[in-house]
Design goal:
520 residues, alpha+beta, Alpha-Beta Plaits, 3-stranded antiparallel beta sheet, 12 helices, 12% strand, flat, 54 kDa nucleoporin
Length: 520
């Protein structure tokens, strides 16, 4: 969970994403940062003693470690924190007076009867901090003239930006503006996936400042080094669950440890126990030598814990925006709202999104290549299946021919038996039914004739399909019209000539008898 903040009041910030705890008087800290002042407490599972006892998952001993909410036990919170059973020594001096409880496991005492993130009474230092902030933003008295109004606007601008110092009085130290202050404008709310792994799965995340290729090439040496850090116990086995690339040349390695008992049974070491061991000062220094920059236990949230996380908005986040973010949650069962404070957090999430997009694209490319290869294999397999079918058919025919010849040789010289005669009659009956005009053969011939006619008509229709341009069609009509007129004129001339010929013949027939009488 990146940037996952929790708050008890506006002046206290529980930043689970960075695994630090900060108040207005002390800076936030990370895993393993021990505080030397009395009444302060270390990180989640950090030690305040010099050396830890030999590591043993089966019988953990109290080595003086004090987590955020009491002594570390084998009962963990979803983010690798040690919210185990305690004796009420967690927040007694850090956040108020009289608030002692063991945590989510078994609560020993609750003097105020309140929940984990209830509003404690403000200390005088916190009240003075709020008064100083209000003075710096509204009514500074540093210069005593009209320039104080300009200074107030400048302090407001710094508060909006979330950086700088607000001077307001010559006798009081300036107010330090951070991005966690409620006036910072560069804030947003995003969503993170809730882990679904149980504490019994024993998954612990180690973030290395090394590239994935280097981690994978030296994975075996890494496992051996982690085993040595765990004391080299032969009953413990370190296993790598997964390796994933992170932005800025970092790599996330998920591990779990299997513990084998003398009777032959084995179990996974709980994630909270393993993470608490890794957060010891001497163990953490050894991990840092291996390049580990961050570690956390990957465990799920219980419904009660998730409800506690969502009840109060993080420090500096408007409660209205936080409530709206919970309403706009696209999948409340799988996602949880987290604040994004400042551009660095936004850049980190952007890099993580780009990295995940690249991984998805790489996976899609691999899947696409696999699909292409499977399609090629399918095509080859289908061709082989068709070839084998043809081969099987040919072998079946050959086998049938061999059986026929063998049967003929075996029955040679024997009379036809009754079952053979019955079989011959059945075959003749089937042959007659097939050859009958109204039966299958006739219908088959009729269907074949219709298919041939359809193919012929389809061919003819396909050949007759043409298109003539309108201008060309007009020219053809004009030409045909002229041809028709010429033929009509020629026919009229021929008719006139025939009339003349008939007249000539008639004249010749009348003149021949007259001439005969004259010469007789």
């Amino acid at each position: 969970f990146g940037g996952f903040g929790l708050t008890a009041n506006p002046a206290v910030n529980f930043n689970i994403g960075n695994f630090g705890v900060s108040t207005t008087s002390t800076p936030p800290f990370n895993f393993g940062n021990t505080l030397a002042s009395a009444g302060a407490f270390g990180g989640f599972g950090t030690t305040t003693t010099t050396a830890a006892a030999p590591f043993s998952f089966s019988a953990p001993a109290n080595t003086g470690t004090s987590g955020l909410f009491g002594a570390t036990q084998n009962k963990g919170f979803g983010f690798g924190t040690s919210f185990g059973t305690g004796t009420g020594t967690g927040l007694g001096s850090g956040l108020g007076t009289g608030l002692g409880f063991g945590g989510f496991g078994t609560q020993q005492q609750t003097t105020l009867g309140s929940s984990l993130f209830s509003q404690p009474a403000q200390t005088p230092a916190q009240s003075n901090q709020l008064i100083n902030t209000a003075s710096a933003l509204s009514a500074p008295t540093l210069l005593g003239d009209e320039r104080d109004a300009i200074l107030a606007k400048w302090n407001q601008l710094q508060a909006f930006w979330g950086t700088g110092k607000g001077y307001f009085n010559n006798n009081i130290a300036p107010v330090e503006f951070t991005q966690e202050n409620p006036f910072c404008r560069f804030k947003a709310v995003g969503y993170c996936l809730i882990p679904n792994n149980k504490d019994e799965d024993g998954l612990v995340v180690l973030v290395f400042n090394r590239k994935e290729a280097d981690i994978r090439s030296q994975q075996q040496q890494l496992v051996e080094s982690l085993h040595k850090i765990l004391g080299g116990n032969q009953t413990l086995t370190v296993n790598v669950e997964g390796v994933k690339t992170l932005p800025d040349d970092q790599t996330e390695v998920i591990i779990y440890v299997v513990e084998r008992s003398p009777n032959g049974t084995s179990r996974r070491v709980p994630a909270s126990t393993l993470h608490a061991h890794f957060e010891q000062a001497n163990i953490k220094s050894s991990l840092q030598q291996l390049g580990v920059s961050f570690s956390m236990a990957r465990t799920e949230l219980s419904p009660a814990q998730a409800k506690q996380l969502l009840q109060n908005p993080p420090a500096g986040v408007d409660p209205i925006i936080w409530e709206q973010a919970k309403v706009d949650n696209p999948d409340p069962d799988k996602l949880i709202p987290v604040p994004m404070v400042g551009f660095k957090e936004l850049l980190r999430r952007l890099k993580a999104q780009d990295q995940m997009t690249k991984q998805h694209q790489t996976r899609l490319d691999i899947i696409s290549e696999d699909i292409s290869e499977l399609q090629k294999n399918q095509t080859t397999t289908m061709a082989k299946i068709a070839q084998y079918k043809r081969k099987l058919m040919a072998l079946s025919h050959r086998t049938l021919q061999v059986l026929i010849k063998q049967e003929i040789q075996r029955k040679s010289g024997y009379a036809i038996q009754a079952d053979e005669e019955q079989l011959r009659v059945q075959l003749d009956t089937i042959q007659c039914e097939l050859n009958a005009p109204t039966q299958f053969k006739g219908r088959l011939n009729e269907l074949m004739s219709q298919i041939r006619m359809q193919n012929h008509f389809g061919t003819v229709q396909a050949e007759e399909r043409y298109y003539i341009d309108a201008d060309l069609l007009r020219e053809i009509k004009q030409h045909l019209k002229q041809q028709q007129e010429g033929l009509s004129h020629l026919i009229s001339i021929i008719k006139d000539d025939l009339e003349d010929i008939k007249l000539i013949e008639h004249g010749l027939n009348e003149s021949i008898p007259i001439r005969g009488g004259l010469f007789s």
